[in-house]
Write a structure and sequence with these properties.
This protein is of the alpha/beta class and 499 residues long. The protein has a domain of 273 residues: Rossmann fold. The chain is 31% helix and 12% strand. It contains 16 helices and 12 strands. The strands form 3 sheets. Strands 2-3-6-4-7-8-11-12 form an 8-stranded mixed sheet, sandwiched between helices. Strands 1-5 form a two-stranded parallel ribbon. The N terminus is likely disordered. This is Alpha/beta hydrolase. It comes from Noviherbaspirillum album.
Length: 499
């Protein structure tokens, strides 16, 4: 996988397994497409910028030339072990996407759509079962999941293909000799890029512009890219910070010579990568913490875990087009305020860094509205009118906790924050939630919608609250259940316990 690629959805499991033998160790605003500052941005950006990559404009993009295939033999799935729930299970192909659907015999009339995470640019399409499958079928919920018709960071395809499957639910049921009434409620759940899909699916902009329109009654976005393109701003800002602090600042974007300098940069930052830091490495750690949501439990501990740190470095050296999903650079680092320590006041060194570090400016209209359908990267504007519950790990380097802060600010600015409940989980990696945490989040959202009783959540914006050593304890469930990997528990045992 090249440096510009995001990690596949299987990264959490790779990370968790890697932690076992490695016991010593797995965004800013300012472009036309960005409307909220990243966490920690408390002052105007320095007046510095750099030329951005600007591939040809228009509707032609690299992503459309990629070919993805589906093996129909991979679609059928059997009954879930260890349950007495009786279900009908159907699989097939819809508009180039594979799907799985499961409906309990005692169906309660609710349908839950599941959006999977990023699959890289792997040409093979796959369908993932929803992680809370047992809870759903044992409580009467039907669920359905699409492979999406394209891999890559294509949240547009994720929304359209998931919505198309939701709309085809009763037709597919009838074709399988089980006529069903239309679902009385439809919910959407997603993780990572799928969290982006789930959050964007209930946005007013999506409701107005999607080809396949579905009015979901609620959403759960887990470890989600709920700041949309702000994620890529963060990844670039972190790369530029690492280079600057290591004494090898970037002078242009994309950074053409990063590969040749990477090992030298790491040697300046770590005595033993990534567990033993140099003085410069400690500065980078402070920069990272402030770029990703500010001081909080778990963050510094995750920074020292190799599989987690590697996941971010593997995403460096991109060109701002998301591997061709866009045809212009969307990255904007102009308003990040870099910190080298825990003191929010700007030291002389920090002033110099913010004045001199390369600033990346996005191309005009890098992610504009389309004439027909959704933007290539659907927006999460914070404009929604149904219950949304989110989960986010405090140590997530890959899709950082600052995504939640951006989402909250956008929702507040648009009067939608009354519909948003966010929960912090004391987890080190990306999407390494226990099934219990996921079930509770879904229960909270569904109960909220069905009864009108708003569930509890965490304050993600108040620095003193987020920095409290007990932050994240309320909704963290470290007990591994029947469907959990024990490796998740092992990774968490390396983290500080709740006081």
């Amino acid at each position: 996988m090249n440096k510009s690629s995001l990690l596949p959805r299987s990264f959490t499991h790779v990370m968790a397994k890697a932690v076992v033998p490695a016991a010593l160790l797995l965004a800013g605003c300012g472009g036309s497409d960005n409307d909220a500052p990243a966490a920690g941005n408390t002052s105007p950006p320095p007046a510095a910028s750099a030329p951005a990559a600007n591939p040809p404009s228009g509707d032609t993009r690299l992503h459309d030339s990629l070919v993805f295939t589906l093996d129909p033999a991979s679609l059928p799935f059997g009954p879930l072990a260890g349950t007495t729930a009786e279900t009908d299970r159907w699989s097939g192909v819809l508009n180039g996407s594979g799907y799985r659907i499961e409906v309990p015999r005692n169906w309660n009339g609710h349908l839950v759509m599941y959006a999977h995470g990023y699959e890289g640019t792997d040409p093979g399409l796959k369908v993932s079962d929803i992680p809370i499958r047992r809870y759903l079928i044992e409580n009467g919920y039907a669920w359905a999941a699409s492979s999406f018709s394209k891999n890559g960071y294509d949240a547009q395809a994720g929304i359209e293909d998931t919505n198309a499957l939701a709309l085809a639910f009763t037709t597919i049921a009838a074709q399988n000799n089980r006529p069903l009434a239309a679902p009385r409620n439809m919910y959407i759940v997603g993780a990572s890029m799928g969290g982006h899909v789930a959050a964007a699916a209930v946005e007013r902009e999506t409701m107005a512009t999607a080809r396949n329109k579905v009015a979901y009654n609620g959403a759960v976005a887990m470890c989600g890219v709920v700041g949309d393109t702000e994620l890529f701003n963060y990844a670039t800002a972190y790369q530029l910070a690492a280079q600057y602090i290591a004494g090898q600042p970037a002078t242009s974007y994309p950074v053409a010579d990063f590969d040749s300098k990477e090992e030298d940069i790491k040697k300046e930052l770590w005595v033993l990568y990534p567990s033993i830091l140099t003085d410069k490495g400690r500065q980078l750690r402070s920069a990272f913490v402030n770029l990703t949501g500010g001081p909080r439990p778990i963050a510094e501990d995750s920074f020292r875990l190799k599989p987690l740190q590697e996941g971010v470095w593997r995403r460096f050296n991109n060109d701002g087009t998301l591997d061709g999903v866009l045809n212009r650079n969307v990255v904007d680092t102009r308003s990040f305020v870099y910190q080298l320590d825990d003191d929010p006041a700007q030291s002389v060194a920090e002033q110099a860094m913010n004045a001199n570090i390369l600033r990346v400016t996005p191309a005009p209209d890098a992610n504009p509205p389309r004439a027909v359908g959704l933007r290539w990267v659907p927006k999460v504007n914070g404009q929604f009118d149904v219950p949304v519950v989110t989960l986010h790990g405090l140590g997530d380097l890959f899709v950082p906790f600052s995504m939640e802060q951006i989402y909250k600010r956008r929702a507040q600015a648009n009067g939608s924050d009354q519909w948003l409940v966010q929960r912090a989980i004391r987890a080190p990696g990306h999407c390494d939630f226990t099934v219990a945490e996921q079930v509770e989040a879904f229960q909270a959202m569904a109960t909220w919608h069905q009864t009108g009783v708003k569930p509890a959540g965490d304050d993600v914006l108040t620095p003193a609250v987020v920095a409290n050593p007990a932050y994240g304890c309320t909704f963290t469930r470290n007990n591994a259940g029947q469907d959990d990997s024990t490796a998740i528990d092992v990774s968490r045992r390396l983290m500080p316990s709740c006081p």
